[in-house]
Design a protein that fits this description.
Blueprint: H1 10-20, H2 25-39, H3 44-51, H4 55-73, H5 88-95, H6 99-103, H7 110-121, H8 127-136, H9 153-158, E1 165-176, E2 202-210, E3 215-221, H10 226-239, E4 244-249, H11 253-256, E5 266-270, H12 281-290, H13 301-316, H14 319-326, H15 329-332
Parallel strand pairs: 1-4, 4-5
Antiparallel strand pairs: 1-2, 2-3
């Protein structure tokens, strides 16, 4: 019979430290096979029963250890690109000339990229290879943002070279008597009940926030349309006559209307489409919907407007709260320069 091969005593501590630092559960399950053999001198069958592996698996771990040491006994890493036509750096070089076309919205098709790829590697590849390449380098199909051919941001800002620039985010919200229950704390055995209405009566609030300092300006208006938007922009401009205002907003119809009156010291720009979470003003509306409208019913629109006015005045008087709600890093750390 072939003599039993033993693990050197110096390796016992190394195996134990590797067990404690095992990166995956499968690695942690394989290493006790070696540790039990070294410390307890158990047989292969006893080790398999102790760790919950098959006898053949324990023997495979021992064979890997004898051939490649402790690193081989931890198992082969799963996943990865075992067969590749191009390295990641070569793929990046293949896509680099196409980035200029992508910035201008030129139509790059998967078919044209596939022909380019096949020319580079010298043989045919399936369509999935091209799509995986695009995903690996974070390319995706997106809708380009429309831009007027005569649009010139530098020319717009050049009209206010000596004025400080104030960054604003604007949005409108609708509040009324229709309410929906929201989650709240309650003791066990005491399910809360709140009044809910299905009365479709509303008023509208125009609001804009300046995240760097938390300033907030709001107006309660009966409608959300072009005249109301013109009135609100005039009020915002009146409060900052010596500043150039850069206001980001969504693409609501009254924001883009030809009849909209835009003050001379205000420049409007668009937020990305379908991204309400990118507008910090939405955080202010969420705060208003929780208090005083959360789990509360109103008997009339007069009561709605009174509660709404009271809450908006509280928010306008609390810049620290608004700054904590809207002061996201990518906004407050931007360098503003209107020149």
């Amino acid at each position: 019979m072939r003599p039993r091969t033993e693990i050197p005593a110096a390796q016992v501590g190394v195996i134990r430290r590797a067990m404690l630092a095992a990166p995956t559960p499968s690695t942690f399950q394989r290493l006790p096979c070696l540790w039990l053999r070294a410390r307890q001198a158990l047989s292969t069958e006893a080790i398999a029963q102790t760790v919950g592996l098959s006898v053949s698996h324990v023997r495979r771990v021992w064979s890997d250890y004898l051939q490649g040491g402790l690193a081989a006994a931890q198992g082969r890493p799963k996943g990865g690109r075992h067969r590749q036509n191009l390295t990641v750096a070569q793929e990046r070089a293949l896509l680099r000339p196409l980035q200029a076309q992508a910035r201008t919205g030129q139509l790059l098709t998967a078919r044209s990229l596939k022909l380019r790829y096949e020319t580079r590697v010298g043989h045919a590849v399936p369509d999935s290879t091209v799509y995986r390449l695009l995903a690996r380098h974070q390319w995706r199909q997106i809708q380009p943002r429309p831009k007027h051919p005569k649009d010139n941001p530098r020319a717009r800002a050049a009209g206010h070279p000596d004025r400080p620039l104030r960054l604003l985010f604007e949005d409108e919200a609708r509040f009324g008597r229709m309410s929906s229950p929201i989650r709240c704390w309650a003791p066990a055995g005491c399910p809360p009940e709140v009044p809910t209405h299905r009365v479709r009566e509303y008023t509208h609030v125009f609001g804009r926030v300046c995240p760097p300092d938390g300033e907030f300006i709001s107006l309660i208006l009966p409608h959300a349309d072009t005249p109301a938007m013109s009135l609100y922009l005039a009020e915002v401009s009146r409060r900052h006559p010596d500043e150039h205002l850069l206001m980001f907003m969504d693409r609501a119809g009254w924001h883009q209307a030809k009849a909209l009156v835009v003050p001379a010291n205000l420049t409007g720009d668009w937020l990305p489409p379908y991204r309400p979470q990118g507008n910090p003003q939405e955080r202010v509306w969420r705060e208003v919907r929780r208090q005083p409208f959360g789990n509360h019913g109103f008997a009339s629109m007069t009561a709605v407007e009174a509660a709404l006015e009271r809450r908006l005045r509280e928010l306008e008087a609390a810049p620290a709260l608004r700054q904590s709600l809207t002061g996201w890093n990518w906004i407050v750390k931007v360098t503003l320069n209107a020149k």
